[in-house]
Amino acid sequence: MFAETAVNVRDKRVQGLFRLIFGMMTVLLIIPVLVIMGMLIYKGGSIISIDFLFTAPTDGMTAGGIFPALFGTVWLVAVALLISVPIGIAAAIYLSEYAADNWFTRIINLAMINLAGVPSIVHALFGVGAFVIFFEFGTSILAASLTLAIMTLPVVIVSTRESLQAVPQAFREACWAMGATRWQTIRRVVLPNSVTGILTGVILEVSRTTGETAPIMFTGAVFFTPLLPQSVFDQTMAMSLHLFVVATQVPGVPEELPFGVALVLIGMVLVMNSVSIALRMYLRGQKKVVEETAMATTAPILSVKDLEISYGGQQALSGVNLEIYENEIFGIIGPANAGKTSFLKSINRMDMFTAGMQVGGDIIFAGHDVKHLRNVYALRSAIGVVFPLPVGLPMTIYDNVAFAPRLRGSKSKVDLDIIVERCLARAALWDEVKDRLNTLGSLLSGGQQQRLTIARALSQEPKLLMLDEFSIAVDPVTTMRIEDVLKELKQEMTIILVTNLVQQANRLADRTAFFLEGSCVEIADTRTLFSGSAKDQRTTDYIEGRFG
Asked: Is the residue at 295 inside a domain?
């Protein structure tokens, strides 16, 4: 079953070729950066000192330090961020969460695209006309920061909108069903789950704002002033303009001075970006979103011995020993955080994609130790997976089901038509969608999308089908239809059913395992467990609803 086929060999060669190409492209991108940094350090490193950073220029800017320019740049970036970030986030929230898809929003989107492409010198002229003259702010930090804010606004809006739209719609609908308003949903669910993406836009804005020269040259930055700004209405020096001045406008400048200024300017960008990245990583680590992902395993016979699973040293599952036989429905019940999903991940090696997840013990599948299988792609291709929430790929109904066969090398339209019809029929969906196979799968109802997920899993021709809380987002009528499908599929494959609905396990499973607090408490015939004959009182208490 796991021997490499000609298709596997070809795919590995193609993968190796593209890995080499992408690696070379990455190196080509890094080399210029390293050369530039090396040149700056070589020619300007000798001038860097505490005095250089914290004193003002002297002798007609041919000596001294850069502190006024350094301080002024911090002013400009900070004020620009205070202006653009709230406005950009507010605009993105409106476009993503409130605005209808009509001609007005399309004009706004077009305006943002055009604004992002406007040359910086045009922004400078606009800043002079609007903020310096019309609003009478004069050449000041405020006028310059407003100009920078308008120039970088599209970056904040686009990155924020994409982050908001990346939050699953199911999250919103779950909140609305509980009576939450749209704003409550945005504030409590959508924004907390998109903050890291928003900070990415802020990082990009910081980088661009720090290095721009033209927008501030006519609106607030001056060639030289020994005074530090006291308010947003004062003029100031700026690092980017100071670099231009000492490199091109001032005679008799030591050779190392412009390189030293450039080195500090890049250092400023790196420091500001590092702070933003550190904040993003901190918030990402603090985000408490439970993402239970359904996994599956492919085996006529599955034997698990002394299974141990941990995350970063914290034990999630320990001492699990069980066997699953061909053509049975094996149920797994238990409260949340009992280790059920971790168990599924370990079987088909999906732990490879989970940072910090460590798996010990033996998992023998179809006579093979999965930890030592080299061809993990064959292992996973023999596994059908149905997730807790319907996961329709962003493609047509037909292409969703044909996706796996095409990965295996099937190209014949006739063969694909047969596979699509057979899998949709086995998932009890064919009659409902046969006349609209070329419409997007995401347009189906929740129950139909879940059956589409089953059909896509069946297209892999799995030996084992694993379902993790498949009915969590499906109505009762659809749940019963899917259960009828599973009873029929049992004749062709082994099924692992993870469910929090104990009566669902009672209806479907031949044998059932009870997981609790990272261990497998008991495995027995389902009828035995549900007849009050469980060996462990905790099993009976859970089944009868005393906890969980």
From this structure: no
pLDDT digits (tens, 9 = 90+) for 30-55: 999 899 999 999 998 999 999 999 99
Length of the chain: 548
pLDDT digits (tens, 9 = 90+) for 349-381: 777 777 788 999 999 888 888 888 877 777 777
Does 70 or 380 have the greater pLDDT score?
70
Task: Name 420's Cβ contacts closer than 8 Å, sequence gap at least 6.
Answer: 398, 401, 402, 437, 459
Least Cα distance to 159 among 192, 205, 210, 190 occurs for 205
Share of the chain above pLDDT 90, in %: 36
Is the pLDDT assigned to residue 417 strictly greater than 90? yes
Q: Please report the pLDDT score of residue 60 as a whole number.
A: 85
- The burial of 410, by beta-carbon neighbours within 10 Å (0-12 exposed, 13-18 middle, 19 or more buried), is given as middle
Parallel/antiparallel/unpaired status of strands 519-525 and 357-365: unpaired
Residues 350 and 467 in one domain: yes
Question: Cα separation of 319 and 513, whole Å?
Answer: 14
Say if 483 falls within a structural domain.
yes
Residue 322: name the closest of 349, 297, 295 by CA: 297
Contact assessment for residue 466 and residue 388, using Cβ atoms and an 8 Å cutoff: no
- Cβ neighbours, 10 Å, residue 231: 9
Residue with tokens 């909108």: 161
Contacts of 463 (CB under 8 A, 6+ apart): 1, 298, 299, 300, 366, 382, 383, 493, 494
Helices and strands in the chain: count of H runs, count of E runs:
22, 12
* Domain presence at residue 423: yes
Query: Would you call 220 helix, strand, or coil by DSSP?
Result: coil
336 — pLDDT class (breaks 50, 70, 90): confident
Are both 419 and 315 inside the same structural domain?
A: yes
Residues 294-329 have pLDDT tens digits of 233 333 478 999 999 999 888 999 999 999 998 899
- DSSP code, position 389: S
CA angle, 127 then 129 then 131, to 5° = 55
Q: What are phi and psi of 472, to 5 degrees?
A: -65, -30
Mean pLDDT for all residues in the chain: 85
Residue 64 backbone class (left: φ over 0; alpha: ψ -120 to 50; beta: rest) = left
Give, in order, the Cα–Cα distances in Å from 62 to each of 58, 224, 524. 7, 12, 85
- Structural domain for 448, as ranges: 302-543
* pTM for the predicted model, two decimal places: 0.54
Q: Are residues 306 and 450 in the same domain?
A: yes
Helix ranges restricted to H, 134-255: 141-166, 169-177, 182-185, 195-211, 214-217, 239-248
Q: Read off the amino acid at residue 33.
A: V
Shared domain check, 66 and 164: yes
